[in-house]
Specification:
single chain, alpha/beta, six-stranded mixed beta sheet, 10 helices, 15 strands, 36% helix, elongated
Length: 295
């Protein structure tokens, strides 16, 4: 249930049975302190959250150092399996073919997928003078497939009758690296516009789609900001922080109460996460399980 509630996952370090613990930090933080360096790599979507958590942990536990390199979900998982980092941030859980490799890296212990961050993906655009844009899932899919190639195409104009749409080509940018954001974005298109977006979801941008690849979230944001009449997909918090525009998505008739209930459920998921992780740690008859560093 906890995993289902979260849109972004962190692939943990390896698990093992253990009854031990570290020293407890002082102050209001009830955490176990450890010393040494912990290094992670992966999702750029998660970078801001992990940086903040690492800072707070290191304030409480000054003998610990936490490093995180935002190279993309695919690269993070590869580095974790190759035993180059202690954990990987990924916007989607391990695939079936990655589970065995991760277990081997963990000395035959399972690698945990722990829900850590929840966030939205925004369809961000840069069209001078266009302050608001409405798109449907089908039209988004058509744009990213190159089937709708101009901003004044009837498919866009019909959804935005009062907008001054330029007669300019749409420049599409996508994540060139293997990305959990791409995985989740293509999952959405495959589910919401199945008759248009027929490609299987995945971390890699599908061969039949259009666009120019850019590395990591920062590369996407830089490209959209620098190129007029462009469009891409990005962590919505990055869109907001950069002051960029994001399209309003018309998914059909969705009651406000439904949206509100979903947000409350997500909030409850986060509040119940410690109990969920504790319950997961009690599997296989152990009284306690911890995340360990196997370098």
């Amino acid at each position: 249930a906890a995993v289902a509630c979260a849109g972004v996952l962190a692939l943990s370090a390896c698990s093992e049975s253990d009854d031990g613990g570290g020293s407890s930090a002082g102050g209001d933080l009830d955490i176990d302190c450890v010393s040494g360096t912990l290094s992670g790599e992966g999702s750029s979507f998660q970078k801001n959250a992990i940086t903040e958590w690492g800072k707070l942990y290191q304030q409480a536990c000054p003998d610990a150092t936490i490093n995180y390199n935002a190279t993309g979900s695919g690269a993070g998982i590869s580095q974790f399996i190759a035993n180059q980092v202690d954990w990987a941030g990924s916007d989607s859980a391990l695939k079936d073919d990655e589970v065995a490799d991760a277990a081997a890296r963990c000395n035959d212990n399972e690698a945990w997928n722990l829900p850590m961050v929840s966030g939205a993906i925004g369809v961000t655009y840069n069209v001078p003078g266009l302050e608001a844009l409405v798109l449907t899932p089908d039209v988004i899919a058509q744009i990213f497939l190159g089937q709708v190639a101009n901003w004044d195409d009837a498919a866009i104009a019909d959804l935005n009758p009062d907008a001054a749409l330029p007669s300019e080509a749409i420049t599409v940018f996508y994540r060139a690296d293997e990305s959990g954001t791409t995985d989740n974005f293509t999952k959405y298109l495959n589910a919401a516009a199945p008759s248009v977006w027929t490609a299987e979801p995945g971390k890699a941008w599908p061969a039949g789609a259009t666009g120019e690849g850019k590395g990591q979230s920062a590369g996407i944001l830089e490209a959209v900001s620098a190129n007029e009449n462009s469009i891409s997909y990005l962590d919505f918090s990055d869109v907001q922080a950069a002051g960029r525009s994001a399209a309003a998505i018309d998914n059909g008739a969705v009651a406000a109460a439904t949206v509100g209930a979903s947000l409350l459920a997500l909030k409850a998921c986060g509040e119940n996460l410690p109990a969920a992780v504790s319950a997961a740690g009690s599997k296989k008859g152990t009284t306690k399980r911890k995340l360990t560093v196997n370098r």
